[in-house]
């Protein structure tokens, strides 16, 4: 069983920023329950042929490592130092100015000095110095070098799975050092030893074999969508008929599978269905490429590429012209900065052009994949939708920027334009907590398990605290976002830190406000909450 | 402890040169041989290190975007913080290198109400000290060129004039001397005083600060207090640059040799240390790349084919279920 979760005010009061008396190299790691996830199961690693697949537990002393694990790690490091300039450079040039130190949500929420980005990176730098620099080899700890012991490996594992690769630290670093890059390398290295966490390994195996993280099989996908269609019909009187794996459609739509599975993401999925229907869009879903997200990205570059390959492969097989991607955070980091490099060029597709407005999406000329917020913002700007924002009047909305769409893409105004068009009550959180300064939900990069809830609540604290500020100031009761993981994780963190604030995808708000041709008078929103002025009309 | 070793090291360097020049008369070693060696190490080391970084490819386009992307025509792009072209990148890099743009963003997280609230106030002191330190260092460095030139060019005189515009003291007091010493002292002070910064500091962080403090103090002493034989300094410097080195007759003064030797130590240490951030900042892929990877394919030189689970395999796994659910299949 997981450790007992402290009460919110206790947890907040217990954050202690005073570093321990002993230096960090002399403070051995202590794996605290509630702060880490369970180890990857044998079957999930086997499914994707990862090394050292076996059942293991981080709590046991024996991690069942291969005999020569040190050599594997050091060779892995040497290999990656050759392959990634970022890695090599970031190992060398940090001046330990500390500008990044208090920018990490895990540090702000835990006070643990090893959650300062600079120290998280030093955990690896200390080994780099020892093994790859002369000064470190000769002068040892004076030069900040140390040996790669089992304790160090456990420390790596503990802290590289306490970083959500959110890149907030890199915004503030004078040299742009991105601790997420180091965490990614750290995770690659732990994966060489089979030291994954099951919350990542499970979805990866699912996604590889079944096309999506949740392991939804084709018939389950269609039946989930059927449920949404029933709900939409009850709400609007309109029966929508989407298609699956249809050849010759103009557009392929790919979104995170999470939205097909659990509230409140399901409402966002309903929003997509309603919007596309209203526009008469010639599009198809795919059950093979049924995952926009990419948990492979949290294990290794190679695994991420393997999972990502399905999107272009499916677009090619179905003969579509271009692709729309749904609301998701890390999915868009991958699609923006990695997909084309890995699996492109997508020369069998056409430059995306909105069939509704004629807008050509030049910014995705090569990937041929458009973010749904770009697509919808364009439609709204052209006045192609009939919208009734008053239907969202029972909501006082604020907006959470996902780490990846803000710091790995720069999608900031598009979703805001949509929200302001479909809602009358919108308030921003404080400037230092949004846009490029946004705080992680606290559970990204596959850390949204249940056994590590304490970690997640600590990491979610800065975001939640900013929401609390606008709740108290403006009465905010709805936190909008464009990320399937956010919809799950922020719901938990709001319930814990700011009860009363609910979480929504932007396209749920669109679905609520969308006046569809031939719809019956709506009395509730998608969640069956009575609309303002329609209370008691049941 | 982590500060003590570097402090002792710098004191030892001072004592070494003191003994060498004052008692053993090794002026030639400290005035000619070591400076040449230090410069050689600096240049070779610097170049090698940059080549080493350069030899590693940039497999992915990973700028940290800090503003609105290029998107729909009516949405204003932040062309500097989220550049999509070369010009934007140049401006972004220039701001980063010249005025430390990212450090300027610095915020200080503070918890209030017994931890129930966190605030993020602006915190510019580190930025200010960093900027003051680097710029005064640069100006002082430029000022020193008067020792290496037969005729002092007018630009240099202008820099000197501006630096001493307070017109205080004889010789005229240079502001940058005070700014440099003040900034270094602050940068050192925060490593002792701020608990988190103290916690992350290594010997390698104290050493260059002590060294530069030593260089600054010896320079100031020499200019304002223990006058050295300035004509001799120029003779030595000119000899060094014209590759015709000679120790001037009549001696220069031991403070000069201390100053020079500490500079040599800094130069020789430079390529092996974090000071290489000076070259590294230009290569940082989160800053020097444009965010146009959706528009133009970025090539990874080591991109290799991987195992994938093909559609065919997928359909083979699920054909019956797909057919039952009315999903079209390739093979009936
Ligand atoms: S801000 Fe950059 S240079 Fe400063 S400590 Fe952090 S990673 Fe190192
Ligand atoms: S990437 Fe995010 S989670 Fe990781 S160290 Fe930086 S700020 Fe913390």
Q: What is the radius of gyration of chain A?
A: 23 Å
User: Taking all residues together, what is the mean pLDDT of chain B?
Assistant: 94
Q: Portion of residues in helices of chain A?
A: 40-55%
Global geometry of chain A:
globular
Largest sheet: spatial strand order of chain B? 1-2
Percent strand of chain B = under 5%
Q: Gap between N and C termini of chain A, in Å?
A: 44 Å
Q: How would you summarize what this structure contains?
A:
With about 550 residues, chain A is mainly alpha-helical.
Tell me about this structure.
The complex is a heterodimer of chains A (538) and B (332). By secondary structure, chain A is mainly alpha-helical. Chain A has two domains: 173 residues, no CATH class; 312 residues, no CATH class. Chain A is 45% helix and 5% strand. Chain A is built from 22 helices and seven strands. Chain A has a four-stranded parallel sheet with strand order 2-1-3-4. In chain A, strands 5-6-7 form a three-stranded parallel sheet, sandwiched between helices. In chain A, strand 1, helix 13 and strand 2 form a beta-alpha-beta unit. The radius of gyration of chain A is 23 Å and the shape is globular. By secondary structure, chain B is mainly α. Chain B has a single domain, classed as Transmembrane di-heme cytochromes, Chain C (Fumarate Reductase Cytochrome B subunit, Up-down Bundle), CATH 1.20.950.20. Helix content of chain B is 57%, strand content 4%. Chain B has 13 helices and two strands. In chain B, strands 1-2 form a two-stranded antiparallel sheet. In chain B, helix 2 packs parallel to helix 11, helix 5 runs antiparallel to helix 7 and helix 7 runs antiparallel to helix 9. The model of chain B has no long low-confidence stretch (mean pLDDT 94). At the A-B interface, helix 1, helix 3, helix 4, helix 6 and helix 9 of A face helix 2, strand 1, strand 2, helix 8 and helix 9 of B. The site of one iron/sulfur cluster (SF4) has 15 residues of chain A, from helix 6, helix 9 and helix 10.
């Amino acid at each position: 069983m997981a450790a007992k979760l402290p009460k919110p005010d206790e947890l907040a009061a217990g954050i202690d920023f005073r570093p321990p008396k002993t230096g960090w190299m002399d403070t051995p790691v202590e794996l605290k329950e509630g702060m880490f996830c369970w180890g990857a199961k044998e079957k999930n690693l086997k499914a994707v042929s990862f090394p050292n697949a076996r059942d293991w537990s981080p709590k046991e002393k024996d991690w069942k490592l291969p005999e020569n694990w040190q050599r594997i790690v050091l060779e892995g490091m040497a290999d990656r130092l050759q392959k990634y300039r970022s890695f090599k450079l970031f190992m060398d040039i940090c001046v330990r100015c500390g500008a990044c130190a208090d920018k990490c949500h895990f540090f702000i929420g835990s006070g643990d000095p090893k959650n300062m980005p600079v120290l998280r990176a030093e955990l690896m730098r200390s080994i780099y110095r020892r093994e790859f620099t002369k000064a470190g080899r000769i002068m040892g700890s004076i030069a900040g070098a140390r040996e790669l012991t089992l304790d160090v490996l456990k420390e790596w594992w503990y802290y590289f799975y306490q970083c959500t690769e959110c890149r907030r630290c890199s915004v503030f670093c004078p040299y742009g050092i991105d601790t997420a890059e180091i965490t990614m390398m750290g995770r690659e290295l732990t994966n060489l030893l089979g030291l994954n966490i099951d919350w990542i390994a499970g979805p990866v195996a699912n996604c590889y074999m079944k096309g999506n993280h949740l392991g939804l099989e084709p018939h389950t996908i269609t039946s989930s969508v059927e449920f949404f269609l029933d709900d939409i019909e009850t709400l609007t009187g309109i029966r929508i008929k989407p298609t699956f794996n249809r050849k010759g459609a103009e557009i392929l739509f790919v979104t995170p599978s999470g939205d097909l599975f659990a509230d409140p993401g399901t409402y966002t999925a309903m929003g997509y269905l309603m919007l596309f229907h209203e526009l008469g869009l010639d599009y198809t879903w795919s059950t093979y490429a049924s995952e926009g997200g990419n948990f492979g990205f949290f294990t290794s570059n190679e695994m991420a590429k393997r999972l990502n390959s399905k999107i272009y492969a499916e677009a090619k097989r179905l003969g579509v012209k271009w692709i729309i991607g749904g609301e998701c955070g890390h999915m868009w980091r991958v699609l923006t900065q990695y997909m084309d490099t890995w699996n492109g060029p997508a020369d069998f597709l056409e430059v995306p052009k909105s069939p509704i407005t004629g807008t050509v999406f030049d910014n995705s000329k090569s990937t041929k994949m458009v973010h749904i917020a770009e697509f919808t913002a364009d439609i709204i700007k052209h006045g192609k939708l009939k919208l009734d924002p008053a239907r969202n009047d029972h909501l006082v909305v604020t907006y959470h920027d996902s780490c990846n769409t803000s710091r790995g893409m720069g999608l900031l105004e598009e979703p805001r334009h949509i929200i302001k068009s479909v809602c009358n009550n919108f308030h921003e959180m404080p400037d230092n907590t949004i846009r490029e300064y946004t705080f992680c939900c606290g559970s990204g990069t596959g850390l949204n398990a249940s056994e590590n809830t304490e970690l997640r609540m600590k990491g979610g604290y800065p975001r939640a605290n900013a929401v609390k500020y606008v709740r108290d100031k403006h009465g905010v009761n709805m936190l909008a976002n464009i990320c399937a993981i956010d919809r799950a994780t922020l719901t938990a963190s709001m319930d814990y830190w700011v009860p009363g604030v609910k979480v929504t995808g932007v396209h749920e708000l669109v679905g609520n406000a969308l006046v569809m041709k031939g719809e019956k008078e709506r009395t509730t929103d998608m969640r069956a909450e009575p609309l303002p002025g329609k209370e008691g009309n049941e | 402890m982590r500060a003590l070793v570097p402090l002792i090291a710098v004191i030892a360097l001072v004592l070494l040169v003191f003994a060498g020049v004052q008692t053993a008369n090794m002026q030639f070693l400290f005035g000619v041989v070591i400076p040449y060696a230090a410069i050689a190490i600096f240049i070779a080391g610097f170049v090698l290190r940059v080549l080493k970084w350069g030899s590693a490819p940039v497999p992915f386009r990973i700028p940290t975007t800090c503003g609105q992307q290029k998107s729909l025509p009516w949405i204003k792009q932040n062309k500097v913080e989220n550049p999509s072209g070369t010009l934007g990148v140049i401006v972004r890099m220039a701001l980063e290198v010249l005025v430390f743009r990212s450090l300027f963003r610095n915020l200080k997280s503070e918890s209030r109400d017994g931890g129930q609230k966190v605030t993020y106030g602006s915190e510019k002191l580190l930025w200010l000290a960093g900027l003051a330190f680097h710029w005064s260092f640069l100006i002082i460095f430029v000022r020193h060129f008067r020792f290496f030139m037969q005729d002092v060019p007018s630009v240099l005189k202008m820099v000197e004039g501006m630096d001493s515009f307070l017109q205080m003291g004889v010789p005229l007091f240079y502001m940058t001397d005070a700014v440099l010493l003040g900034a270094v002292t602050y940068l050192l002070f925060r490593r002792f005083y701020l608990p988190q910064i103290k916690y992350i500091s290594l010997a390698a962080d104290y050493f260059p600060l002590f060294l530069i403090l030593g260089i600054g103090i010896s320079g100031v002493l020499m200019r304002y207090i223990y006058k050295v034989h300035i004509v001799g300094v120029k003779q030595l410097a000119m000899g060094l640059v014209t590759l015709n080195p000679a120790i001037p007759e009549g001696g220069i003064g031991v403070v000069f040799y201390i100053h020079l030797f500490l500079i040599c130590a800094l130069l020789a240490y430079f390529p092996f240390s974090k000071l290489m951030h000076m070259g590294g900042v230009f290569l940082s892929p989160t800053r020097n790349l444009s965010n146009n990877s959706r528009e133009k394919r970025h090539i990874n030189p080591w991109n290799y084919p991987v195992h994938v689970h093909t559609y065919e395999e997928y359909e083979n796994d699920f054909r019956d279920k797909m057919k039952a659910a009315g999903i079209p299949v390739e093979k009936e």
